[in-house]
Design brief:
The complex is a heterodimer. Chain A is mainly beta. Chain A contains no helices and 31 strands. The C terminus of chain A is likely disordered. By secondary structure, chain B is an alpha/beta fold. In chain B, strand 22 and strand 23 form a beta hairpin. Chain B starts with 6 loop residues before the first strand and ends with a helix. Classes of the chains: A mainly beta, B alpha/beta.
Chain lengths: ~350, ~450
Amino acid sequence: MPDIEPFSPRGMFHEGWTAEVSDYAIACGWALKGKQFIVGDVAGGIFAFEGDTGKIIWKKENTHSGGLLAMAIHPEGEIFATSGQDGNVQICNCHEGKVIKTLDLGKGWVEHLKWSNDGLFLAIATSKKVYVFNEIGEEKWISEDHPSTVSAITWSNKNELATACYGRVTFFDIVNNKTNQKLEWQGSLVSMELSPDGDIVACGSQDNSVHFWRRSTGMDAEMTGYPGKPSHLSFDDSGKLLATSGSERITVWSFIGNGPEGTMPGELCHHTEPISSLAFSNKGMLVASGSRDGSVVASFLKNDGNGDPVGAAFAGDLVGAISWRPDDCALAAVNAKGVVNVWKFKVRTNLFSKGFK
Amino acid sequence: MSIKDKVPVTILTGFLGSGKTTLLNRILSEEHGKRIAVIENEYGEVGIDQGLVINADEEVFEMSNGCICCTVRGDLIRVLGNLMKRRDKFDYVLVETTGLADPGPVAQTFFMDEEISSEFTLDGIVTLVDAAHIDQQLGRSDESSEQVAFADVLVLNKTDLVSDDALDTVESRLRDMNRMTRIIRAENAKVPIETVLNLSAFDLDQILKRRPTFLEPEYPFEWTGVYDLDPGKYELMLEEGPDPEMSLVALVNQGESEEELKDGAESSVRLYAENANTLEPGNTIPYGEHINLKLEDKGNKSFILNIEKPTKIGLFTQHTAEEFNMKVIKSDENKEIPFNTERFWQAEHEHDDEVGSIAIERFGDVDPEKLNTWMGRLLSEKGVDIFRTKGFISYSGNPRRIVFQGVHMLFTAQPDKEWGNEPRRNQLVFIGRNLNEKEMQEGFDKCLI
């Protein structure tokens, strides 16, 4: 249990709704344009709630024997995919949770799922291989074996997929089946994010550093000095700021001008225990962070990466995942005890303003 | 999170065919009330019976700085990172490595990765060795000697396939390589469960509570016989043996209890440290002195023991009596007097293996600053070759004993209980490859005040 005292939502966070799932909640996301909120727990329970009220719409348990590992909601929000230790991927309908297609990928854990931005492709990483399927579950591409287990995948544009593993990031043109680029660096890459234009590749590394490359210039840089491995990375929608964290502190690198090389990053210190989830809002320079101590904070950032908190709330236990509603007017957090919290996020009116305690 | 709330992890290493899976199945099938999650790197040979079993390919991740101590096991980080979300399903983790695994990165994972070390604690490293094949394996592969060097417990398995003599030889070789380990002999991996689980082997405090000195001392002699002798003249008669000479200390009034034998052994160690007086056959053996019997001549050789009043004589001999068919004969009756009691000691051995243990034991206090400088330099220069370090130290001016341990260059030192009336002393064990004992002892001696 966290050591901090429970507190009521402050600043721009307002009471919304809470609900519960059956086990440790590890994944969540908004569907149907914010009308529905879907939560997955570690044991394989999937729950869909009404976005405004938290009323349960449907639920199903034991979707993946051995447990759930990943969930990804299609950008259109009508379907979603889940994967687990059983080596399966399920593509499901959001309205009823019905399985449209089950993909059996063998014995390995299926740990990563990513829909392409236009929603045409679903990328799936299991052990050393990456697969691409279309929306209806037809196989479109398979990678060769990577040198080690694939630790992150992300789309750089509609046909190009980036994969990270020990020692390298690789860009594949999955339509023409060719390798576009290989960025090599000896280190265990544990996380990867791309700037929205796909030019900057940022990776957190096991040796407590963030390594990034600019694809257009081939320049790369290493940001060291993290107290822990930077498992959490998030770019803002303009690609100006990269928030990173491997401890209770958030370090924000600004890519404005010649940065971030040679610049001082912004530092946000709002939590007492390491960050367990980190996400920029869909639009604008708001970053939300959830911590092992159960606290959730939203900070408004300036161009240099520094910023101030604009709201805080208590999720009750280690924050497993957070998700901004598509309109950024609500933030959801799910925790290790299976509790779901959705707070409204808005400017307080004068009448109700209490300010920060 | 305190160490009590963390999930203990046992690492099971050993060559293919040493019996790891058999031991694993034994552990899983026994009633011990634990729910054990198993991470298996080696599969196919024998299936695992039950429980939460996760297969994962071994992935050794070196860091860009090239430092061997930062090398971790990516597969364990991944699997344990997921397991920690399912804490309600298990309360113990067993990791079965492949036969060729280097235990260093496995152990280091539990120190180097914050997420893992905040939830899990390395309980111990158990290495299985196949008694019939370990001798060849040690000669052929580095992995095999490293697995022996890292072990907190060594299970000498398949003892039914090897003679007792061969077992003794193997055990003594393993003991030389790793003097902190506990060696358990087993047939078909049949070992009591408590000897492999919940060892708290990385919690030095616990170890020292169980074994106030975790070193089995090595003596310069192998055997003691206690003889009850009336006044008169006796002959110590020896035949040809493995050596053309043999060291000996004879003590009068030697008791026969274990405690008295150990007291006698301690006096003898001190006497053995002095230069020996060489005795030719026919000479009289003095009491309480280090002597060296000349045994070059063929046939029986006799040395004289004179007894003035009834006493028990303790003979502390470099080799066992059996090796020289050594007898005590009462001269006037020409009658053999058998010993009342005998005791064998852990003897010093020649260290043939590259991998070995070095122990440093010194009374007194050390200067913390000097020690830190020395240890810092030692580990930075030799950290690659030093696999494990354990010990306790007496810092001058500190009322508490400092316990410490390390894996390669990673190193922790913590204050432990107060010394109280106990004599202040230092005990350090290094296990590693090609370590220079003399240099290390001299280095340590310079830190003493």
